[in-house]
Structure formats: C-alpha cells, structure tokens
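ok trying again, last paste got cut off:
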Amino acid sequence: WLLRVVLFCFLDGQAQVLLKQTDVSVTRGQTKTAWIDCVAEGISDFKSAYIHWYRQIPPKAPERVLYIGSGLALYDDDSYRNKYTSSKKGTNVCTFSVEDINSNDEGTYYCKFYFVAVSLFCSFPPIINPDELISSPASSEILQKRHENQIMYVCLIEKFYPEVIRVTWADEADKEVTDNIVKGDVWKPTNGDKYSIGSWLTVPAENKDKNYYCKYEHESQQRSLSTQGIYYMLKIQFYMLL
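nice, full thing came through this time. structure:
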C-alpha cells in the first residue's frame, strides 16, 4: 500500500495570510510515516499562532485532529496521540505527521489558520514498493497553433506516475501567467498505467516573439519548457499532414 499526499492551497481574497506546501506530493509505503509541511506567510507571531489540523475520511464530515500553538499539540481525542503528531519549525513551518500508514488513513487532511486553509488529499493504491512506482514523464513538449489574431500553445506532458502534478505558465520575466489558461484534467488510457495532462495558453498574435514557459512540478522532477524555437518545426509538420 502507498500513501500519497497532495496539497492544494486556497487563499481568501481578504486574507493577508497564505498557507502553502513545500512539495507537490509525498510518497510513502505501508507502515511508514508521512510528514507534511504547512508553510505560513503573513503570520506576524507564528510561534504563538494556533494552527489547526483536520481530517475527512469519506463519507464522514471533516473533524479536527489537533491544534498547536506555542507549546505541545492539543488533541481533540486522546486516541489520536499515537497516530498523529505536529510541531513547528523555524519561523513559519508547521509539520503534521501520520504514523503507521494504512488504508484507513485515506482521506483529505487540512491545515488551517482561521479562514485560510490547505487541503491534503491522501490515497492508497495497491503498490508494494513505492520506489518502483514513481515515474517521471516519458515526454513533454509545447505545441503551437495559430488562428486569426491569436496563438494557442499546448503544453503536453505524458506518461508519469503518480498522477499528482502541478502545471503553470510564466512569461519572460518569470511571472506566473493566469489569464487565458485552460488546465486539462489528468487522464490515463484504459489499457495503460501512466498518466498524461495538457494545459493551454492563448496569447495575442502580436506576442509571437515573446517567450512563455510551461512549468511542471512532479514528485519525480521539475522542468520548464520554452515556447521559443517550436514554430517552424510545427509549421513543417502541419504542411506534411495537409
């Protein structure tokens, strides 16, 4: 069995506090321990701030496991003491650990500070050796299509495992691009065991000389792909298909 922890960050528009993760995913085997870091930005007195950890085991509603301030963690149920622990590191990191992982731990875990929260989804595929499971993408490329006054870039990342991956776009100044982005869902062929994903960026045709980057973070590796140098190669391919 395998524990895979995936973290998603949500930021309230009125909040000055951001909670985020250090890794896109964490893989552990059965009976192992998983450590999850919740990184806080914008909390002036982090040492004394109360950080709450919740879990949701379907079909039950979310329940708080513990919370921690300046001292030791305080548990909502004494039965959690041998299963979960939490501590603070440095000036802005709160760590939560799940001991002796098994299939009953599957669910969603939340790190919370008031109305700002990070959710952590945990699942357990039937794999004996997690080291044999992690597979970096077999291929990754950016395709281009021009239509009237727009250019569409398609970032295609294929055949990776586990399915947890973060894909973003950035401009020449390495600033994240959030407008005109379509993020596809991760998919797996019916006869395959690896996953793929696509992400689309649409820009005005006058930006054809600007460079954009498709960045992905996977447990196996991180990579950045450039849109420069792909146009003529794809143009030849299109002609050959006509």
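cool. The longest helix spans residues 231-241. The CA atoms of residues 45 and 91 lie 9 Å apart.
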